[in-house]
Amino acid sequence: QLQLVESGGGLVQPGGSLRLSCAASEGTLDYYAIGWFRQVPGKARERVSCISRSGGSTSYADSVKGRFTISRDNAKKTVYLQMNSLKPEDTAVYYCAAGTSGSSCPEADIYYWGQGTQVTVSS
């Protein structure tokens, strides 16, 4: 059993930065690829980024490439999403999720989801 807890969301101005954290409150992240997803009400959930179990391989949605960076610290049982140059269209609820497939994190292979953290980018 794995329980994921996101933190670090909030309100930020366009161009600003936030760092999201995904921690395992129960269980360990070591066995899983970890992905960050986001969802806006009325729209489909979007996969933002994914990192392999070892941290050696990552992937990003085209919409966030060059602005977001995913990383993990297995000793701290935490995965991070550093978000820079934020835009209003990044506003969403961000979820972390644990799966078993490489560094692509397809939703069909996700076993566990966090509860989500709100990110709002607005002036």
Structure in words:
- The protein is mainly β.
- The protein has strands at residues 3-7, 10-12, 18-26, 33-39, 46-51, 58-60, 68-73, 78-83, 92-99, 110-113, 117-121.
- The mean pLDDT is 95.
Notable traits:
123 residues, mainly beta, seven-stranded mixed β-sheet, four-stranded antiparallel β-sheet, 11 strands, 50% strand
Concise description?
The protein is built from no helices and 11 strands.
List the helices and strands and how they pair.
Elements: E1 3-7, E2 10-12, E3 18-26, E4 33-39, E5 46-51, E6 58-60, E7 68-73, E8 78-83, E9 92-99, E10 110-113, E11 117-121
Parallel strand pairs: 2-11
Antiparallel strand pairs: 1-3, 3-8, 4-5, 4-9, 5-6, 7-8, 9-10, 9-11
Elements, N to C (H/E): EEEEEEEEEEE
The count of helical stretches stands at 0
Oligomer: single chain
- In percent, how much strand structure appears in the residues? over 45%
**Rg (C-alpha, Å):** 13 Å
What's the total count of β strands?
A: 11
Approximately how much helix is present in the residues? Answer: under 10%
Largest sheet: 7 strands, mixed
How far the N terminus sits from the C terminus, by CA atoms, comes to 40 Å
State the low-pLDDT regions, or none: none
Mean pLDDT across all amino acids: 95
